[in-house]
């Protein structure tokens, strides 16, 4: 497709929110307007196009320069987001009264064409970009932007939102040190990350935790208990244990709260499980703090703002250069383009031999293995 063939683009944000989404939107919109393109935003992932009657504004809103002014520092997303609106697995109630999943992507492609959208900038994590890849294969021109606080998207050094989440989690651990020491308690801190332990690892090491439990290294609770009892013998009558929500005991299973049709399973309870077992084994008073969605909110850090702006501008450059079916990816000192199929082919988990894990072990931090 030639550069001048683009007249109108759409942007959407899908999956969990992350600090930096608005910065991406602003950079993409301003960059596109400077090229003479019109910009529109799709409400709540793809819901604005698939269920327009649910929106007073029709689900597809114009994005003039004035709409994105002053939003770089804001958390959340002005477009709204959802982790329920997967057009590949759209839940519908059948005649039997049960919900079934149907594929609405063909209908979605028609909606883009009806609204004369020439290209889509899809901002999201592995699930959202997996959908974007399918849409690209079906003829829609798409460029993806990697978003997830979990940092589990492949082919990019880092995703925006991750630095903000880790920075906040580390600040929380810093605060917990003082209360843990004052009360001679074990504090278990559960953080998000789903099936990847990046957040737990980075905030645990940065916050000088005594143990870090991540999905990539199955743990034995007895090993963690031994570490805690060792600290007491050394005169340090408190301990900090960071637990990723996807942490798994050896021979055990994930802590799953629920599984609903049309969305991924909901994890939760890993921290409480660890805290209960630690107290039972050691007899030490143990408390669990779940940071949860606190990690998603708030103002993005300078680092996240910068890569968000770089990603948004790069996505528009990619379209202008004729790219399609790609994701912008951070490859310092540049932003490059990688095929969406490659970026969503596998999850980027923590390599257990990486330098940060080795550093943690050198510092005496236990992974429970």
Characteristics:
2 domains, Rossmann fold, 369 residues, 15 strands, 4-stranded parallel sheet, alpha/beta, 19% strand
Short description:
The chain is an alpha/beta fold. It has eleven helices and 15 strands.
What secondary-structure arrangement, pairings included, does this model have?
Blueprint (H helix, E strand, L loop, with lengths): L7 E6 L7 H13 L4 E5 L4 H4 L9 E3 L27 E4 L5 E4 L2 H10 L4 E6 L1 H12 L4 E5 L15 H22 L2 E6 L6 H9 L4 E3 L7 H13 L5 E6 L11 E3 L7 E2 L2 H13 L3 E5 L11 H19 L5 E6 L2 E6 H4 L11 H8 L7
Parallel strand pairs: 1-2, 1-6, 6-7, 7-14, 8-10, 8-13, 9-10
Antiparallel strand pairs: 2-3, 4-5, 11-12, 14-15
Structure, described:
- The protein is 34% helix and 19% strand.
- The chain is an alpha/beta fold and 369 residues long.
- The chain has 2 domains: 3-160 and 300-332, Rossmann fold (3-Layer(aba) Sandwich), CATH 3.40.50; 163-296 and 351-362, Rossmann fold, CATH 3.40.50.460.
- The strands form 4 sheets. A 7-stranded mixed β-sheet has the order 3-2-1-6-7-14-15, with helices on both faces. The protein has a 4-stranded parallel β-sheet with strand order 9-10-8-13, sandwiched between helices.
- Helix 4 links the parallel strand 6 and strand 7.
- The N and C termini lie far apart (53 Å).
- The model has no long low-confidence stretch (mean pLDDT 93).
Q: How is the CATH topology of the largest domain named?
A: Rossmann fold
Strands side by side in the biggest sheet: 3-2-1-6-7-14-15
Distance between the termini: 53 Å
**Could you tell me the strand content as a percent range?**
15-25%
Separate helix tally: 11
Helix-strand category: alpha/beta
- The appropriate CATH architecture of the largest domain is 3-Layer(aba) Sandwich
CATH class category of the largest domain? Alpha Beta
Helix content: 25-40%
């Amino acid at each position: 497709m030639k550069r001048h063939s683009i007249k109108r683009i759409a942007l959407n944000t899908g999956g969990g929110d992350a600090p930096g989404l608005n910065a991406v939107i602003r950079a993409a919109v301003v960059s596109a307007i400077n090229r003479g393109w019109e910009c529109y935003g799709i409400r709540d992932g793809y819901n604005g196009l698939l269920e327009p009657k649910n929106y007073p504004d029709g689900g597809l809103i114009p994005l003039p320069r004035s709409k994105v002014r002053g939003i770089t520092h804001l958390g959340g997303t002005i477009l709204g987001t959802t982790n329920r609106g997967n057009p590949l697995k759209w839940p519908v109630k059948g005649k039997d009264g049960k919900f079934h999943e149907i594929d609405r992507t063909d209908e979605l492609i028609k909606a883009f064409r009806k609204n004369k959208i020439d290209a889509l900038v899809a901002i999201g994590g592995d699930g959202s970009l997996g959908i974007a890849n399918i849409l690209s294969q079906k003829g829609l021109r798409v460029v993806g932007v990697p978003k997830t606080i979990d940092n589990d998207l492949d082919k990019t050094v880092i995703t925006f939102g991750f630095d903000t989440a880790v920075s906040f989690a580390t600040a929380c651990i810093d605060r917990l040190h003082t209360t843990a020491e004052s009360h001679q308690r074990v504090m278990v801190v559960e953080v998000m990350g789903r099936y990847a332990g990046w957040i737990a690892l980075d905030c645990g090491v940065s916050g000088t935790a005594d143990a870090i439990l991540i999905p990539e290294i199955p743990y034995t609770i007895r090993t963690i208990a031994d570490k805690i009892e060792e600290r007491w013998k050394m005169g340090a009558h408190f301990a900090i244990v960071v637990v990723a929500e996807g942490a798994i005991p050896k021979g055990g299973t994930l802590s799953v709260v629920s599984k609903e049709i049309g969305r991924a399973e909901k994890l939760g309870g890993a921290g409480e499980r660890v805290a209960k077992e630690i107290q039972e084994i050691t007899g030490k008073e143990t408390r669990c703090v779940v940071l949860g969605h606190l990690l998603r909110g708030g103002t993005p850090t300078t680092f996240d703002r910068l890569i968000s702006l770089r990603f948004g501008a790069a996505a528009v450059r990619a379209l202008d250069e004729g790219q399609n079916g790609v994701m912008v990816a951070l490859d310092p000192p540049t932003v490059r383009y990688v095929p969406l199929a490659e970026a969503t082919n596998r999850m980027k988990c923590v390599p257990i031999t990486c330098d940060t894990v080795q550093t943690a072990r050198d510092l005496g931090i236990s992974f429970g293995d």
